[in-house]
Amino acid sequence: MPLPKLPSKPAALLAPKDYPKAERGKTVKPHIALVEPAAPIAAPAAKATPQPQARITGKSPVEKPRAATPKVLESRAKSTTSRIADKLGVSKLFVLDTNVLMHDPTSLFRFEEHDIYLPMITLEELDNHKKGMSEVARNARQISRSLDALVSDIAEDAIDLGIPLSKLGNKDAKGRLFFQTKLQNAKLPDGLPEGKADNQILGVVRALDQQYPDRPVVLVSKDINMRIKARAIGLPAEDYFNDHVLEDTDLLYSGIQQLPDDFWTKHGKGMESWQENKHGTSYTYYRVTGPHVPSMLMNQFVFIEPKNGEPAFYGQVTQINGKTAVLQTLRDYGHTKNSVWGITARNREQNFALNLLMNPECDFVTLLGQAGTGKTLLALAAGLAQVLETKNYNEIIVTRVTVPVGEDIGFLPGTEEEKMGPWMGAFDDNLEVLNKSDGDAGEWGRAATQDLIRSRIKIKSLNFMRGRTFVNKFLIIDEAQNLTPKQMKTLVTRAGPGTKIVCLGNIAQIDTPYLTEGSSGLTYVVDRFKGWSHSGHVTLARGERSRLADHASDVL
């Protein structure tokens, strides 16, 4: 039998006069207790325009059942106290755990009109983590500098009234920052050691909950066990999900849209068509107008596959202006005459991906897909064709995140390229496939080709990327799902004139601690770059590695 939920707020007792009286023939409705507006945590003079705040009593029974909406996942991530406060329009007081500040140094300014409370133990933990060159240490130093700038010119006796978070120019942060300035004693359940930092923060949350019963107090932590402990002792706690691009990765932009079968019927009136020759290939263009156009994005692939035997249509959106769009036909890379370094597209999505990879106007390409969908092979084949054949770029640079799947094997000997060798096994496997595609070259010819390819491929480590500028390079970032948004920004901003960046990854295989599908750097760039005229994205759906690999992806 499952345990009942513990209440996140103590229930309010009604006065006898407030109880509803039963009358014959009349249904008694439950009474919702709301106390008159109460003062916020700061003194009334601290804010120019204090917002009215009502006491929230009880929990989910006062809420009416909601219809299913796209934001269901977001509401589930929030605590019950937060959801009721949002419904009533009440400002909340968020108590931040140390890991939130070290995960996102700008988190102080991302809580809109709500106030923030920092326990003293949080500042102690920040001080303990500020040393070193790791990402966590850099974040700890950055948040310490922000806090110093906030408190620098505040009088000692005014710090209890709260510091406006908009003081440093963050206009969206309309709340105030409060520090723990006095010891707060709150009784925690027996058995919880009082000396542990997490338990001290829980004690502060309980004390604030008792001290300000008219305000919703919510703990925000990235630590799952911390949130479980908080909820177990009846305190509202939730994850910091401001860094999540999407709550549900099923809603992530796929780069592909299937058009309805009656698309030409509804959009063919007054349609214009013409042909142009670009990069040695003839393309047909269609200018269409209709109700389906506003849902399209630049460089998005569209297709119609009628079931009545009519020919299929595959196109790409090249222009959008209101309800008018220009669709361009694609080059068929599934045909052997259009093969790229001996590689042909085996399915619809691979054809879309090769159209992006071989397009010199597209500077930034992201390819998502499960293991065996051909991401690395397509990117390498396109890179070799444009470096050695068309000479659009002068070399291929390959990099990836060095996060091991199992235990680390220790230090690796050799130069930077030799140390990266074990991480680049996937590229070696694909190069072997690409070298065998030319059956007429013979053993000596293949060996010469392999030496030529090796001379044009440079393997670089992510650790030495800051400050570099790549000019006329074909940059491939493999396993990009293990990058944080900040690391992804560092890499993408390395691009100089004439450089193309290709990001490959599978968000279902994240090995970096504290990164999720919603907060991965790959998800971040896919969402932010969609609709830009010089970028494109394709989610590869079908595995082409082998029947064994495809079956394993489905059943394991």
UniProtKB/TrEMBL annotation:
Keywords: ATP-binding, Nucleotide-binding. Pfam families: PhoH, PIN_4. It comes from the Bacteria. Residues 8-17, 42-54 have a biased composition (Low complexity). InterPro entries: P-loop_NTPase, PhoH, PhoH2-like, PIN-like_dom_sf, PIN_dom. The keyword Cell membrane does not apply. Residues 92-228 form the PIN domain. Residues 1-26, 42-79 are annotated as: Disordered. In the N-terminal section; belongs to the PINc/VapC protein family. Belongs to the PhoH family. This is Phosphate starvation protein PhoH. The lineage of its organism: Bacteria, Pseudomonadati, Pseudomonadota, Betaproteobacteria, Burkholderiales.
